[in-house]
Write a structure and sequence with these properties.
12 helices; 0% strand; DUF1397; single chain; mainly alpha; signal; AAEL003483-PA; flat
């Protein structure tokens, strides 16, 4: 079950890495590029908050984060058990580690709240997208004990992967040039409808896959993007897809 192992491991590492970047606190080991990012963030925090307090809290928070994760997520056990992951033991595996990964999100939530005070405009929107992709991915991964991974290993799924670039190119015609170049926070209702039409087009194209739930993989990015943009006022996630229940 290589795809499930890769995604679970990647997500677990991503959650931890988000809050355990040793280079966040200014140090001799930080790269020049990393150092510039840190110093830029420090300047932004000072400019937007008027003090150094927020940045100092971020440094302290990132330093404490690895200890927080160690108290919630058994990475050593996960690394060992994921090697043996298969259909017969997935209920136990996901039942054990999904609650741990969900609990570990509390280690990064305060950090993102602090970061939000140091960003604005498009930078804030992009940060919100990245932040909200983590629980979206985790929820999908854990749903029905990782059912989506085992369901999407058939030849139908591979057929979709092979054609996905073609589907994307064809459906991109739903999005105008003005929408492509517009800031997320400035999208109007018509442009937001274009994004919704794009997703609907992809859902229809994926009918050939005969794989229920595959549109959820796209929604890991799509939903956070919409929520972080002005489109949150116009797009209703509760509406059903054009393909009934996405049984495609």
């Amino acid at each position: 079950m290589m795809s499930a192992r890769l995604v679970v491991a990647t997500l677990a590492v991503a959650i931890c890495a988000t809050a355990s970047v040793n280079g966040f606190a200014i140090s001799d080991s930080a790269s020049d590029e990393g150092q510039e990012v840190i110093e830029s963030l420090e300047r932004q925090c000072l400019q937007l908050t008027g003090s150094t307090e927020t940045f100092e809290k971020l440094v302290a928070g990132f330093s404490f984060a690895p200890m927080c994760f160690a108290g919630h997520l058994d990475l050593e056990g996960l690394a060992a058990d994921i090697i043996e992951l298969n259909d017969s033991n997935r209920a136990k595996f996901f039942g054990t580690y999904c609650p741990q990964m969900n609990e570990s999100l509390q280690c990064i939530n305060p950090l993102f709240e602090l970061l939000r005070t140091c960003w604005d405009g498009e930078e804030l929107a992009i940060m919100d997208i990245m932040y909200n992709m983590i629980p979206e991915a985790l929820n999908l991964m854990c749903k029905d004990h990782g059912e989506i991974f085992f369901r999407l290993e058939g030849p139908e799924y591979n057929k979709c992967v092979e054609k996905f670039d073609d589907y994307t190119a064809e459906c991109s015609g739903k999005i105008s040039n003005s929408t492509e170049t517009m800031y997320l926070s400035k999208l109007d209702e018509g442009q937001c409808r274009e994004l919704g039409d794009f997703r609907g087009c992809i859902a229809e194209k994926l009918q050939i896959c005969k794989a229920p739930g595959i549109i959820d993989l796209i929604d890991i990015f799509y939903k956070p993007m919409v929520k972080a943009s002005s489109c949150a006022k116009y797009i209703n996630f509760e509406q059903r897809d054009p393909v009934e229940s996405n049984e495609i």
